[in-house]
Design a protein that fits this description.
Length: about 350
């Protein structure tokens, strides 16, 4: 079959006529929103459409249904590896459901977040996915009041539909791993207190410490940002004071923090995986490629992305805050099992 002449617009009616099927049959065969039919008739229609050079105008057909099949995704920044990976998974999950995902960045300022969200809504997106939520964030509340379809991803405000990892379980797994290796002098560097991730990971870490009946100094529980520079500052505070009691292990609530702590440890000639055990969080691709591969808590971003899309396109009566289970990935940075020395046991008892 010859393709249409250059400049000729091939319509669905043309495809139906060339295929010898009805207009509705051709439309169903070429509908990309769901799982493609595997029937011989549908395959024939798709083959004819390809030979004719037919291109479905999904935007026009979506407008006729009062939708654009487009979702807006708002992230703080794409220079953050986790956010970039999260958007990639959201894009895949959206595409599998016949949607297109577009991204905007907002930084950490609530006003910038609001403006970025309005920019996406001005593009007539069918819903918003926010990876920016703060516990004190007004944006999710305003979206609820306006009836805007939305879902929070990775973080939650405890009210809006949310897809995230079980951060409390993740924090528990990280610190339990260090305890099982024989450590009792454990510091925790967690994320900002305005994020659900920071609070939940710290809660899980504290639960593990309480179960082991160990109480490290309060000053060893630091709240920081999620950047490498924040980890370096925390590492300096924990490791840099000569003659003072130091932790033998640290749980860092994301891998960026852990990498900053590695840099601080190197500055003070402390060997990660030997002198200091370290566990991060998120298991970004770089974690396993470091000079001393980083133990980390892996979060199933693909599951979280699929859940976030479904919360918008297939809303149901199930719980709207859905958590996926994280997994601890042990590597060399957490070291080998160690026996607590008499000094360690005495320090732990007096802490």
């Amino acid at each position: 079959m010859e393709p249409a002449a250059p400049g000729t617009i091939v319509t669905l009616r043309d495809v139906a006529a060339a295929s010898g099927v009805s207009l509705s049959t051709a439309s169903r065969a070429l509908d990309e929103r769901g799982t493609a039919s595997r029937s011989a008739a549908a395959a024939h229609v798709r083959k004819v459409a390809e030979e004719l050079g037919y291109r479905r105008n999904s935007f026009a057909s979506s407008l006729r249904r009062g939708e654009t099949r487009t979702l807006g995704v708002l992230v703080p920044r794409l220079s953050d590896t986790v956010m970039a990976l999260m958007f990639e998974e959201l894009e895949k999950a959206a595409s599998a459901r016949g949607y297109f995902a577009m991204v905007a960045t907002s930084g950490d300022d609530p006003d910038d977040e609001r403006r970025a969200a309005e920019t996406l809504l001005d593009r007539n997106v069918d819903g918003l996915i926010l990876a920016t939520a703060r516990l004190d964030d007004e944006l999710p509340r305003r979206l609820r009041e306006r009836g805007v379809a939305h879902a929070l991803v990775l973080r939650t405000d405890g009210v809006s539909p949310s897809a995230l990892g079980d951060d409390e379980v993740g924090g528990y797994l990280a610190v339990r791993h260090l305890i099982d290796l024989g450590h009792r002098e454990i510091a925790v560097v967690t994320g900002p207190s305005f994020t659900s991730t920071g609070i939940a990971r710290l809660t899980g870490a504290r639960r593990a410490l309480e179960e082991a009946d160990t109480k490290p100094p309060e000053k060893w529980q630091l709240a920081a940002g999620y950047g490498i520079e924040n980890g370096f500052s925390a590492g300096e505070a924990l490791l840099g004071k000569s003659g003072e009691r130091r932790p033998t292990a640290i749980f860092a609530a994301n891998d960026n923090l852990a990498m900053g702590i590695i840099a601080a440890a190197h500055r003070f000639q402390i060997t990660v995986g030997g002198d200091l055990a370290l566990v991060g969080y998120n298991d970004i691709p770089l974690s396993s490629r470091l000079a001393t591969p980083l133990s980390s808590v892996r979060v199933p971003l693909d599951q979280i992305a699929a859940t976030a899309i479904d919360l918008i396109v297939n809303p149901g009566k199930e719980p709207t805050i859905r958590k996926s289970m994280p997994t601890l990935i042990p590597r060399e940075s957490s070291g080998s099992p160690r026996q607590a020395t008499t000094q360690d046991r005495g320090s732990a008892a007096s802490a």
